[in-house]
Please model this.
Amino acid sequence: MTPKELQNLRNAFDSILRADYITLDQINELENLEDYFVDFFGIMQSLLQKQDNFIAGRRGTGKTTNLLRAYYECLKTISPKLKDKPSVFDKEKVLPIYVDLSTCNDLFDSEDDLQLIEVHFIRQIIESLKRQLELMFDDKFLLVFKKENPALEDLEFIEKVLVEGIALRNQTTTAISTKQIESEQVEVSSKLSMTAPEIGSKIGANSSIETGQTYSQLRGINVQDFLNKINDIKRKAKIDNIFVFIDEYSDLSIKSQHKFASLLKTFLGSRMGMFFKVGVITDRYDFGEKVIIGRDIFPIPLNFNDYVDRYGGAIAAIKKM
Model:
């Protein structure tokens, strides 16, 4: 075996060690994933359905692998680098966005209110999309695409929004400053007379209070603004659907999961062809009260026991493999 063949073999084993080590800026690693990926139970087909899903399994059962494989399948429909690669979507264009929640733990663990978390999370989505555009397009093609495709102007607008922010609302606070002016005048006068003695005095004091209003602005882009803008991009670029892959949900604390679930609820069922795919660890996830499983989001199990129950026994499940 030649040194080059040994290196290729080593790279192959390294690539299947853990999908966590796959980087989205290396398209060849995603290609390798497609080559060795085996989908026994049709998990990827379930992930690519036009509905909101969460994929649940224990550690090491393939959550990240399946999310990345589905991401790559979408990528093949839109990236000129992969235009010769066949895809299950045929002629449909699907824009994939991949977000790793383990990189934004601090955001959801903070004591910020939900509206501020919403702004920062949308920034996270936009940042992910901007980085992944470099994966989808060559630099030269990106320049041509910028001239020919008006949707990119909207992406530039989003980038500008990201940097400069949009004033979403004015928060009115009342600042009361007290300015009290006191002055005191004392006059004493007397008049002595045998018939009518007089004594007089005069005391005066003045005070005033000044009040004013100050305004503070929350800068950023909220969910509805983002959905409206991404829908414009989708329409102008002639994109059929958008799939957002959310990994490492279970890395968040239960309190943070509830915050994220409240935010996720505002996205689910947007009716604009934008679908969320969330990776969770079995028995370590909680969508709270607002997101209802089976109505708002649908499960895709990875545990073998689930397929034993589905197919009526272990032998039947193994035969499906």
User: Anything to note?
Assistant: The CA atoms of residues 78 and 130 lie 15 Å apart. The beta strands are 53-57, 94-100, 167-177, 185-191, 198-204, 210-219, 241-247, 274-281, 298-301.
